Amino acid sequence: MNAREEILGDIERITPGRSAAAVAEDYAAIDRSYLRRHHEDGILDLLAERVAHYRATVRKVSAEELPGAVAQALAARPGRYAVPEGLPAEWLSAMDTERLAFDPEIAGLDGLAGTVTGCAVAIAETGTIVLDHGPGQGPRALTLVPDYHLIVVTADQITADVPEGLERLDPRRPLTFVSGPSATSDIELSRVEGVHGPRALEVLLVL
Predict the structure, then answer these.
(1) pLDDT of 192-205, one tens digit each?
(2) What is the C-alpha separation between 191 and 162, in angstroms, rounded?
(3) Cys-Cys with 120: which of 48, 107, 132, 202 at CB 3.0–4.6 Å?
(4) Closest listed residue to residue 73, CA positions, set 109, 115, 30, 13
């Protein structure tokens, strides 16, 4: 038994007697009469606007321009970059492989300049990019420890609003919701960046 199964077992013991059919029935009865999409057109431009609002750097590129854009973004910072397993090789085809750390050990992440990943979903209305840490995204630590994170978002991954975005995600996956660089404010509203994750976020939107 792993930790997840143990926790779910504890919850089941606290609220016993709920069959899978009963849970499914309650889920189906949830009122979903709310507006599901606030936008029908221009969602890529909206995502770019909202992500930039959170102080992230956003660039729109074509699929042909993507390898050069990745190389240019990473060239701006000295050091090596973490590359998760499953990231498309063509994205890095313009990079010097000596500057890439493929599927690095968690213990060595603090010494890297940053990381480059894909994502699972991007939500235009909120400017949120969601990682489910599948292929090309790596474990959660890979995107939280290094000080810089470059995310590639393809047009088919962009949804207009939250309901549509959540429908594409598996709630059993470890989900990380990214809305700009990591930042927090103290009681006097002094903004501090990089406390809980990358200080710098750059997003390449592939048209």
Answers:
(1) 665 667 889 999 99
(2) 27
(3) 132
(4) 115
Domain ranges of the chain: 38-206
Task: Say which residue, 187 or 24, is predicted with more confidence.
Answer: 24
Distance, CA of 68 to CA of 71 (rounded, Å): 5
Length of the chain, please?
207
Architecture of domain 38-206: 3-Layer(aba) Sandwich (3.40)
Q: Which residues are registered as beta bridge partners of 185?
A: 191
Other CB atoms within 10 A of residue 91 CB: 23
Closest CA to 176 of 135, 139, 146, 202: 139
pTM for the predicted model, two decimal places: 0.83
Handedness of CA 35, 40, 43, 46 (dihedral sign): negative
Residue 124 CB-density burial (10 A; 0-12 exposed, 13-18 middle, 19+ buried): buried
CB-CB contact of 192 with 186 (8 Å): yes
Instruction: Please report, to the nearest 10 degrees, the dihedral formed by the alpha carbons of residues 42, 40, 161, 139 taken in order.
Output: -50
Q: How far apart are CA 108 and CA 90, in angstroms?
A: 25
DSSP class of residue 182 equals -
